[in-house]
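Work Package 3 (structural annotation) set out to generate three-dimensional models for the target panel prioritized at the project kickoff. During this period the team completed the workflow that converts sequence records into discrete structure tokens, so that structures can be stored uniformly alongside our sequence database. As a representative example, we reproduce one entry of 149 residues exactly as it appears in the project archive.
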Amino acid sequence: MSKRVLVPTVIGVVALGAVAAGGYAMASSTTELAVENGSAHYAAPTAQRAGKLAYSVDVSDDSGVRSLKVIAWPKSSKLEPTAAELRYAGDAACSRTSDETSRCAYTLTVSTREAADLAAGTWYVSVLATAQDGDTEFVSRAATFEVTR
């Protein structure tokens, strides 16, 4: 093969490779559905006010956040909820903080009677996040909190 044909062919192959690599880099830079910076807190009821379980977390995806399902469960129960079970759990309220991220908060009021039935000790929060494009992310132990008497 002559140098006149070989050099332009090599340059063309290198240029096509660079364009393909750039397109791949752009396609792979999409944000995966992520559940981050979560925290949970339990406040026992008193004579003056109801008790409360509060959980908040940042959820992000390049398509936006559709929903976050939340359930709390005691470590002593050895339950280990699944993603399928969380489809029927309580909904967190999510507010957009950017095109891709929402801050989600879940609050559960606890009466004195309900608090008396709660297992004391370590509890976990499990979550199921759903993005606008249908992607889901299940986190079995998204946060930990203590229930005290």
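The longest strand covers residues 136-147.
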